[in-house]
Amino acid sequence: MELFEKVEKLVQKSGCTYEEAKMALDLTDGDMLEAMILLEKQGKAAPQGGSYSTRYESQPQYVPVIVEEKKRERGGAGTGMKGEGGQKVKEFLKKVWHVLSSNYLVIDRRGEQMAKLPFWVALLILLGSWFLILALVVVSLFFGFTYSFEGEKEREMRAANKVMDKFSRAAESAKEEFRKK
């Protein structure tokens, strides 16, 4: 390739002037790559049609196809976990978890606290073997165990504790009647 063709090509690729391209080629003994690097270092070269870089830059105009496809399958943008409906479900689950972890089932025997279980633990135990637990609770009432609830909402807990007290009193009166006979 002749010097003139190299200068022409370098001007096209770098956007510099003919004089700058010729001078860069002269300094690099006609090596196109070295001339381009020299021009870039001098700040005289900028690739036509934009710049090129190996640095990662987010390009918002491009959306991964897989994300768009999932949105389309769900029927729009607002139906995913990040959408409005998903946000409501997430908030509801947070509230349920808060209630289950900040309220307790307290088991006492003759005034001494035997156990204090968070609701979520008591619920798991109950769901695991409800028939056995129910029978165990009824039998334990006859042996002086009492059950109560503690937590943030005292008014609701008071109502539940009144019901638990009624069960305890019913078990005591049944035990007394059994002793009389």
Protein architecture, described:
By secondary structure, this protein is mainly alpha-helical. Among the domains are: 3-41; 97-180, no CATH class. The chain is 61% helix and 10% strand. The chain has helices spanning 3-14, 18-27, 32-41, 65-74, 84-102, 119-128, 130-142, 154-180; strands spanning 104-109, 112-118, 145-150. Strands 2-1-3 form a 3-stranded antiparallel β-sheet. A hairpin with a 2-residue loop joins strand 1 and strand 2. It is rod-shaped, with a radius of gyration of 39 Å. The N and C termini lie far apart (121 Å).
In short:
With 181 residues, the protein is mostly helical. It has eight helices and three strands; from the N terminus they run αααααββααβα.
Query: Which strands sit side by side, in order, in the main sheet?
Result: 2-1-3
- Average pLDDT, rounded to a whole number, is 81
Please count the helical segments: 8
Q: Roughly what percent helix?
A: 55-70%
Biggest pleated sheet = 3 strands, antiparallel
**Uncertain stretches:** 77-81
Order of helix and strand elements from N to C terminus: HHHHHEEHHEH
* Spatial extent as radius of gyration: 39 Å
Record field, number of beta strands? 3
Question: What is this structure's SSE topology?
Answer:
Elements: H1 3-14, H2 18-27, H3 32-41, H4 65-74, H5 84-102, E1 104-109, E2 112-118, H6 119-128, H7 130-142, E3 145-150, H8 154-180
Antiparallel strand pairs: 1-2, 1-3
